[in-house]
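User: Please predict the structure of the protein below. I'd like the answer in structure-token form so I can feed it into my own downstream comparison script.

Assistant: Understood. Taking the following sequence of 207 residues as input:
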Amino acid sequence: MTLHETQTYLQLLQETLTLARQAPLSPTNFRVGALVYSPVSKNIYATGFTGEQPGNTHAEENCLAKLAEKHGVNNAASALGKDHYFTLITSFEPCGKRLSGKKSCVERILETRKNDGGIQKVVFGAKEPGTFVQDSQACKMMTDAGLEWEFVSDMENDILSVAREGHVEGPEKDVTNIDDISPEERARQEAIPRNPKKRMMEVPPPP
């Protein structure tokens, strides 16, 4: 990757970060932005962000769907055409697996290549941290399919910060502090029949 390419990718990743900030806050999604870019014409052909379209939609999914809609066709492969090569820039590593069972973003990207054109490279600015999917296989899937990808890490901290907005982590989670339990509630809980198969933590009474 040349210095010029790096500078171009950083500028485009900044665009995806701006898009990600438009995504709704959610404890179960990352806020991500994505765009389809032509390295030949230097034009951006479509953009998308998490939750932009109805349902539990990802940024890349929305970007490709909007591209198809813009050209009045059923899929992004038809919109991108044959022998035309594009790069997908996304703030976050595209998903290789959806917990919802929906088609992954990597699969959607690979489908654009059916006509010997489509997306030939993916550039992203942050790796999947394992919050929702452990040991992401997205990069392996792209490599195995012959799809070039590039991880540009310069903006990773900023991207992760925006992506995680809306998540509740650590001490901020809605947990019960045993010191805040009233004597009445403690007595009620102690009166509940216990399952002998479960190991229970005994809470000593307050002094």
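That's the full token string. The beta strands are 33-37, 44-49, 85-90, 118-124, 148-151.
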